[in-house]
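User: Could you check the structure of this?
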Amino acid sequence: SVVAYNLTGAFRRQAAACAGVEPRRLSFTGVWTTFQIFLLRHMHTEPEPWREAFTRALQMAMQDKLPNRAGRKFKREAYRKRPKDAQFAKRTKPPSKIKESDLK
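Assistant: Sure, the predicted structure tokens are below.
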């Protein structure tokens, strides 16, 4: 799975370079699906069909752009670590995640 992730990441970076956008603008899932359909499901024994399939896959991956979501930065919040004596107790939500319905 690590090799597949790294291959997809490299393919995504190459597609982003061809499209002239940052790699994060391309959908990882879309690029992975394109990689699977065009390159992994077919047995390419000759170099020329492999190059053609790779070029088509790259063109398709360049179209998997995500919308530009400017200003989407949220403060990171984490659950506090449980004490060792309460190992099986349920975790409590951070204060900003508590809703009215949780207080009832």
